[in-house]
Amino acid sequence: MSKHFARKYLREEVLPSTFCPGCFNGIVINAFLKAVEELNANLRKVVFVSGIGCSSWIPSPHIKADSIHTLHGRAIAVATGVKIVRPDLNVVVISGDGDLASIGGNHLIHAARRNMDLLVIMVNNLVYGMTRGQASPTTPIGLRTTTTPYGNFELPMDVCRILEQTNANYVARWCISNFFKLKDSIKEAFFMRGFRFIEVYAPCVTYVVRYEGKTAGEKIKELFSTCIPRELVDKAPQGKKVIEVGVFKKEDKPGYIEMYSDYRRSIA
């Protein structure tokens, strides 16, 4: 009997997964590892950094590679230090919207401004899932959470739109239903220079999907029709809820490491 391709990349001693039944983080792991497999990338040349939250458990402890599981909101700060000290390594940050867009928001924006050579994957589950479903910076209007029991009235952050205006080289968003697009996007960004950001829209099954009265499968089916490519958003029926997906920005400017090296040579 053949083994699943991902098993050689996973620490089987920590299985079964710590995620809730139906959690979409499993799809994110599968897409990432499929991209690694197709690229024939060497994970011994990769360092994962994550903060605090459900998706921060994707690299640590699941993936067989060096990883740093750091403080809440400090994943990008730590990853920046790793990249500066070891520019030969591919540094990948995997964390959630609460970790990256809230307490770590300034680190995120300034890493993008510097075009720091990092691949950042933000799994947007719309809430603080690990701490029982409080509203986060990306919580949609009207969503009932433990801290917004009558529905959220605050406008959510569109992190991709914000980072599109920075010096980042690559910005993209995909829904969890866009598995192959997500996998291909990770492949595209993996070896690029500069700052690369991929948002994965993956509503928390326990504190979002269940509260909507849906199953994980029903939510994925819904996302097939609500996750619309950027070029088709204007053609969507008026009033229809849509989630804009696609590549928001793709450039090939020198990253921070290259610019810093050039700067040091110029003043030597």
UniProtKB/TrEMBL annotation:
<protein>
    <recommendedName>
        <fullName>2-oxoacid oxidoreductase (ferredoxin)</fullName>
        <ecNumber>1.2.7.11</ecNumber>
    </recommendedName>
</protein>
<feature type="domain" description="Thiamine pyrophosphate enzyme TPP-binding">
    <location>
        <begin position="60"/>
        <end position="200"/>
    </location>
</feature>
<dbReference type="Pfam" id="PF02775">
    <property type="entry name" value="TPP_enzyme_C"/>
</dbReference>
<dbReference type="InterPro" id="IPR011766">
    <property type="entry name" value="TPP_enzyme_TPP-bd"/>
</dbReference>
<comment type="subunit">
    <text>Heterodimer composed of an alpha and a beta subunit.</text>
</comment>
<dbReference type="InterPro" id="IPR029061">
    <property type="entry name" value="THDP-binding"/>
</dbReference>
<dbReference type="InterPro" id="IPR051457">
    <property type="entry name" value="2-oxoacid:Fd_oxidoreductase"/>
</dbReference>
<dbReference type="GO" id="GO:0030976">
    <property type="term" value="F:thiamine pyrophosphate binding"/>
</dbReference>
<dbReference type="GO" id="GO:0019164">
    <property type="term" value="F:pyruvate synthase activity"/>
</dbReference>
<dbReference type="GO" id="GO:0018491">
    <property type="term" value="F:2-oxobutyrate synthase activity"/>
</dbReference>
<keyword id="KW-0560">Oxidoreductase</keyword>
